[in-house]
Fold each of these.
Amino acid sequence: MAPPLCRLYLITPPRLEDLAGFGHLLAQALDAGDVAALQIRLKDTPDEVIAAAVDALAPIAQARGVAVILNDRPDLAARLGCDGVHVGQEDAPLAEARRIMGKDAMVGVTCHDSLHLAMEAAEGGADYVAFGAFFPTRTKDAPTRAEPELLTGWQADMLVPCVAIGGITVDTARGLAAAGADFLAVSAGIWSHAEGPAAAVKRFNEEIALGLADRG
C-alpha cells in the first residue's frame, strides 16, 4: 500500500535526560501510527552525547522503517550511520552536506518562509525543503513566520517534498495537510501531548487523513 501524501516527521526534544526512558516512549509512539522520519535534534550537546542518543534511538526507529535524520551535523550523521541530515541556513552548506553524506543519504534544508531559498535548495539537490515556523514555538527560536499558502504554491510548481515545521499541534495539523505539506515536523506537539506521545501520533494521523480528504 502506498504511503499517505502527508506524513509525520518527529523531532526529539532538545534535551534527553533519560535516554532509556525516552527510547520506550519513542517505541510506543512509532507503534501507534504512521511516522516517516525521526530527527534527532539535541542543541548545545557534546558529540559523545549525540552519539549515545543515535546509538540508542536509531535502532528503534529503523527497525520500524522510520528514517533517522540528524540535525546540523553531516560529519556526525555520516559517521554514526544516520539515514540523513537536516541543515539550516547557518549550518553546513547543502553541497558540503551532500559530499559528506553521499548521494544515497537524505539531505533536508531549512528554508524559513522563502520560496527563493527553497528553489535554490531544490536545484542544489536537497531531498526536501522545510518551511516555517507556521505557529509560535518554544522548541527553538523561529526567525520567520510562514503561511499555509506557501505550501500550496510549492506543491503546485515543485516536485521536491516540503516539510511544515513550527508549533504544529493536533489542532493545526489538518489545515497544513490540506494546504499541501508532504510532511509535518512535530516535537512538543507529540512529546508534550496531554495523553502521551502514542495518543498524539494516533490523533495526528487522524487529522492528517482529514486534511488530505480536504485537499481532494
Amino acid sequence: MTDVVRQQMNQDVIEEFRANGGTVGGQFEGHELLLLTTTGAHTGEPRTWPLGFHRDGDNLVVFAANGGRPNRPGWYYNLLAHPDAVIEVGTDTWPVRAEVTNGAERQRLWTRVLEPFPFLADFQAKVSWEIPVITLSRTEN
C-alpha cells in the first residue's frame, strides 16, 4: 500500500469518526479509536491520525507499531518533537501531553494490551526495534 493510499484511508476514517460521534466501521468496527492531532516535527502544521488505544486509569495509551512496517509512524516523531497534542474520543476533545514509557512501566502496559490487541505481538516480531508505548495524559487548556 502506498503512502498516498494510506493517507486517504486515514482521512476517510477521520471523516467517518467525526460524522458518527467516534464510531467507525470496516476494519475498525467494534474497536475504540481516538483521533490524535499532533504538531508536525518538521512543518509545525497540525496532523491528525486515527489510532486504537488502551485505557490505563485516567490516561490513554497508544502504541507506535506502524503495522509492523520497518519505520516508526510519523505521529511518534511529531510527539517526540512536540509532546503537547489534542485527542478526540467519541464526541469529546481535550489537550494531552505525551510521554514515551520505559522499563517496568512500558512492560506493564505492553503486557496488558496484548490480550485485547494480540496482533501487536505480530507487529513486534516484524521489526528489530522495540515498539514505543506512549501515554497520553489530560492537560489544562
Amino acid sequence: MKKVSSLFKASILVLFSVLIVSFSIDKKQQDPKLVGIWKGFEKDGQIEGIEKHWIQQRFEDGSYVIMFTTKENCEVETFTEKGRWWTEAGKFYEAAATTKDVDIYNYEVKGEESVEFKSIKLSGKNNDTYIFSDYRLDLK
C-alpha cells in the first residue's frame, strides 16, 4: 500500500511539473507601452492602389482586435482581424487567428503617442519593405 501511495504522489508531482513547464514555455511577454487603442493609415504601403486605415486594440493578455477599412478605386471594404501579439528581443510578433503565419516587425516606441513598425517577415515570407506607424487614441 505504501508503494502505491508513493508511486501516486510521484506521478502527481511529475504531472504538476510538466504542466508548470508547459505554461511557462507558452507565456509570451508584451511590451506594456504597446497596450491600448491605436490607429494607423497607409497608402500603397503593402499593395499598390490600396489605401488602408485601421484601429487596433492590444490587450495586456496578448490578444488583439483590428478593424480595417480599405479603399481601392472608390470601393470601400471593412473587415476585422483577431489574434495574439507579443514582443521579444526588440521585435513585435503578430499572429492572426485565421493563419498559422506570424508577422514579425522591428518596432520603436516614439514617446507615448506613436510606434513605428518595420517588417521583417510577413505572411511567412521575408519582407523588410513595409513601414508604418500606429498612433495612440486618447479616449479621455
Amino acid sequence: MDVIQGAKERARAEVAQAIKEQAREHLATEGPGRLSLRAVARELGMVSSALYRYFPSRDDLLTALIVDAYDAIGRAAESAYGEAGDAPAWETWQTVCAAVRAWALAHPHEYALIYGSPVPGYDAPQDTVAPASRVALVLLNVLETAHRAGTLTLTETGGEADAAAVLSPDVHGLLAGRDLPASAVTAAAAAWAQLFGLVSFEVLGQFNRVIEDREALFAQGARALARQVGLSPQT
C-alpha cells in the first residue's frame, strides 16, 4: 500500500512541476498579470478542471511560482556563502551579492515576478515570507561572523535603542539567538534594499543606454555596500 501511495505522490509532484514549468513559459511571454490557468492547461493538453486539483486558483499557482523563485535565489546566495568558506567577510559579502546578480540575470522573468511590479489583484500570503528572507539571512550571517571576530565597524550614531525601534516584532523574533546588534541589522536592511535596487535596474532595463560596463558598476556597488554595513578589506 505504501508503494502505491508513494507512486501516486511522485506522479502528483511531477504533474505539479510540469504545470509550474509551463506557467513560467507563460510568464516569459505574457507576464504575471496575464497568467491564466486555462491557458496553462491548454498548453499541457489538460482540461482546466484537472489543473484546478493541483492549483485551485491563479493566486495559488502564482504563490507556488513566487515561493520557487525566492527559494532559488536564496539557494544561490546560500551556496555562494557556503563555498566562500573561511574567506574574509569583506570578500564573502561581495561573493554573495554577485551570486544574487548572476541568478537574476539567468532567470529574468522569475526575478521580475518577485522583484518587479506587483501583480494586480494578488496579495502575497504568509507562505512567501520565509522564502523571501533567505538572501537577507545570508547577508546577516556574513555580518554576524565579522561581529564575532571583532571586525565589524558600524558608523551608526543613533544608538542601539533607536535601531531596535525600527525593527518589527517579526524581525526581532527572527533574530532571537543571533549575536548581532540592532544597528547592524538596520544597516543590513538598507544594504539589502540597495542590493536589489542595483540588480533590478540591470535586469529590468533601467541601465540601458546609461551604463556600459554593468558588471564593473555592480562590483563597485557591492564594495560600497560592504563598507556601508561595517566591513572593510581587512575583515
